[in-house]
Specification:
Layout: H1 3-26, H2 29-45, H3 47-51, H4 56-73, H5 96-107, H6 111-122, H7 127-134, H8 138-156, H9 162-170
Helix pairs in contact: 1-2, 1-4, 2-4, 4-7, 5-8, 6-8, 7-8, 8-9
GO molecular function, one term: DNA binding
Domain RNA polymerase sigma-70 region: 11-76
Family: Belongs to the sigma-70 factor family. ECF subfamily.
């Protein structure tokens, strides 16, 4: 299989998951499209290095998170070309309320907590892999995971745990 075919096959198979991960990180479908586009462009440019990686999926997740971080840093440079906000696309999804509640809850988290939770539970990566992708310690990943889950439970009003009660009493 040639280089381009291999790249197309890989990206085609993972594109929906990449888009969902980007969406969960940023909370905006249009920004998620931009992040995925930047990620796939970078992957294509460096495909020889990517396909030589020990774990291609982990490499791709690392690129996705970095593109998300780059996009956040460059947010000040965005330009609004119209004086009207475009209408949001309507979906026929039966779980819209649940999705919106989760998206709103994720938006309440810090960027680090949201990134760790998306990589851990949506992308189903182990703690060690998330630590390697983010360039931090496993303890840091565990801490962000714990605090993020506590905050999600608090925001969603589920799972009244001792930690949630402690957070409520301290606020």
């Amino acid at each position: 299989m040639d280089r381009d075919s291999e790249y197309v096959e890989y990206v085609t198979a993972r594109l929906p998951a990449l888009h969902r991960a980007a969406y969960l990180l940023c909370g905006d479908p249009y920004r998620a499209d931009d992040i995925v586009s930047a990620t796939t462009t970078s992957l294509y440019r460096h495909w020889n290095r990517v396909r030589a990686a020990e774990n291609i999926d982990a490499y791709v997740h690392r690129v996705l998170v970095r593109k998300y971080a780059d996009e956040r840093r460059m947010r000040w440079a965005r330009v609004l070309l119209t004086n009207r906000v475009p209408e949001q696309a309507h979906t026929t999804d039966d779980h819209v309320e649940e999705r919106d509640s989760l998206r709103a809850a994720l938006a309440e988290l810090t960027s680090a907590q949201r990134t760790v939770l998306v990589l851990r539970f949506f992308c189903d990566l182990p703690v060690a892999e998330v630590a390697r992708i983010l360039g931090c310690s496993e303890g840091n990943v565990k801490s962000h995971t714990n605090r993020g889950l506590i905050m999600l439970r608090r925001v969603l009003g589920v799972g009244e745990t001792p930690q949630v009660r402690e957070l409520r009493s301290s606020t």
